[in-house]
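Propose amino acids for all 323 sites.
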């Protein structure tokens, strides 16, 4: 697989990464054996960017990734995140960007992952009560200590990105981006390009919606957070199916899967984007990886650009920091 650069500090990864969140939580039951096999297969076919976070599975996802890469750390560009704090209530969320917590979080992540450093450390959500300069300053300490190679932010506003980057160079900003959700293209992506920061789209398949596998909200199983996703419930689901139909039409003309078209569209937005579709199945991983070889024509890109974005809020409660 071709590689792409994220930022101007030297971080280079595969053109497509692997989001590991769903291997431990949020999308229903999973099997660790299948997940580890998927991670191993990703490395075999050239996908080296693995994305996790300390809040996924309350630390269990980092442990899972750590087990999967224990004998192949040198093959991996390892990214994790901190800043979302979970309480005893599984639905509760908070944010903490204090310098003390930054130091605590990186040490805890390294222990769970079983490594001496991570390649990319993101602040998962910005803490409105802590100046970003203080948070990034503490993150930079970890770079100086050799615990982290590059810094990132997730779901940060343009002015916050500017202030963070002025404190210490930011290599990547991770924000939701897909045919389903294009808000980041208005201000966040332009600021990243102005500053020379790479962009990592998460949920590039619209939380699986753009794969075309779902025909009604009843298709989501128990424990799947999409049951509460406003865009996938009731009337919004029926309206948003139109996006999938447009993707399917392009896919059928090219003899490829809808998921591959959705990923190819994201990849076509620029060489500074590295999407991280998540999966826990080898066959879907291989399908996603093959999207890197699909080149959509200018007319097809315009056709997809003209598709309306999804109807409904991105999250059940936009004051929440659910990932």
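Proposal:
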């Amino acid at each position: 697989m071709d590689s792409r650069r994220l930022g101007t500090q030297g971080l280079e990864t595969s053109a497509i990464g692997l989001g590991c969140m769903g291997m431990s939580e949020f999308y229903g039951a999973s099997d660790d054996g299948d997940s580890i096999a998927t991670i191993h297969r990703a490395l075999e076919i050239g996908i080296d960017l693995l994305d996790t976070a300390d809040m996924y599975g309350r630390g269990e996802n980092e442990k899972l990734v750590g087990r999967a890469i224990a004998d192949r750390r040198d093959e991996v560009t390892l990214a994790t995140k901190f800043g979302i704090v979970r309480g005893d209530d599984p639905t509760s969320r908070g944010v903490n960007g204090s310098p003390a917590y930054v130091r605590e979080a990186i040490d805890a992540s390294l222990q769970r992952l079983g490594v001496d450093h991570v390649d990319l450390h993101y602040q998962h959500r910005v803490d409105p009560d802590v100046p970003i300069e203080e948070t990034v300053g503490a993150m930079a300490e970890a770079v100086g200590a050799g615990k982290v190679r590059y810094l990132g932010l997730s779901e940060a506003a343009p002015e916050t990105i500017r202030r963070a980057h002025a404190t210490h160079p930011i290599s990547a900003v991770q924000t939701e981006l897909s045919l389903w959700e294009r808000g980041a293209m208005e201000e966040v992506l332009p600021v990243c390009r102005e500053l020379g920061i790479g962009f990592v789209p998460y949920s590039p398949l619209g939380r699986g919606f753009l794969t075309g596998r779902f025909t009604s909200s009843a298709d989501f199983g128990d424990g799947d957070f999409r049951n509460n996703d406003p865009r996938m419930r009731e009337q919004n689901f029926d309206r948003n199916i139109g996006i999938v139909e447009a993707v399917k039409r392009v896919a059928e003309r090219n003899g490829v899967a809808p998921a591959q078209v959705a990923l190819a569209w994201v990849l076509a937005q620029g060489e500074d984007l590295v999407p991280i579709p998540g999966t826990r199945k080898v066959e879907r991983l291989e399908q996603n990886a093959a999207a890197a070889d699909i080149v959509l024509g200018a007319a097809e890109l315009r056709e997809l650009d003209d598709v309306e974005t999804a109807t409904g809020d991105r999250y059940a409660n936009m004051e929440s920091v659910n990932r």
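The CA atoms of residues 16 and 274 lie 5 Å apart. The mean pLDDT is 91.
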